[in-house]
Predict the 3D structure of the following.
Amino acid sequence: MARATRTSQPAPLWGIGAYWRGAYPPWIALIVVLIGGRFAVARLWQVVSPPVPMPLFSMLILADIALAVWQVVGAWRSVSHWVDARARGDVLFAARVAIGAVAVVSATHALDQSARQTMALAPIAHAGPMPLEVRNGIAYLTGDISYDLLARFEATPTQGVSAIDLDSAGGHVFAARALAQRVMRRGLKTRVTKRCYSACTLIFMAGAHRDLGPEGKLGFHGYSLEAYPLPIDIGKEEEIDRAFLRERGVTARFAARVFATPHTDIWRPDRHALTAAGVLRD
């Protein structure tokens, strides 16, 4: 009596499981799935504007980590199989170094997203911020533009405040945008009697009326987001604020000059240029 035998089916060469086992050709695994896939994920993170609800943020981070592990392991196994069969050990070493570098960048990216989420939530979580100094209806916003300063602005009573006096060398662009939105919502005037540079100028431009004192200076330049690894796109962020300047009545030529100025330099136009460009508004 003949016994039935079970024939084994060959493992599929494509699919999630096949990639995990290293069955993909190394050029597809390394370049398309790993490097191309991580770049695509970084681009997708750009559309996420923190803060987002923590349950959703946790799901996104966990999904990103799981995807990164799958991409790195599959590429590692694919390269190892191919090199063992066809190439020299130095090629394997170089490929593994490249995979390791992508893994480090992916981990840094996940940490950066967590930092951005934490920073965006900081004004909400900050307990008992000190209000801004207010004298004669003017709130004095002084120091580096940060989420702490935003929290202090939020804690300042709105009754009787009609204007803010700015004195800052710049700071956090995203915090400046948040402050600018609040200034516009409250219909506050803005003025500078000392200096207002870099990110501070976004808040100044939010004023319903914008005044520059005799000794006041405005300073503009392009952005440097070195503190924010991928996926921050400097060009995209500059374009957002270029559009904001135009919406606030600034000429296209002036707005172009602002972001053409390197972040290592500062452009301090005189009162005549500021008035002609629509920066000052009585």
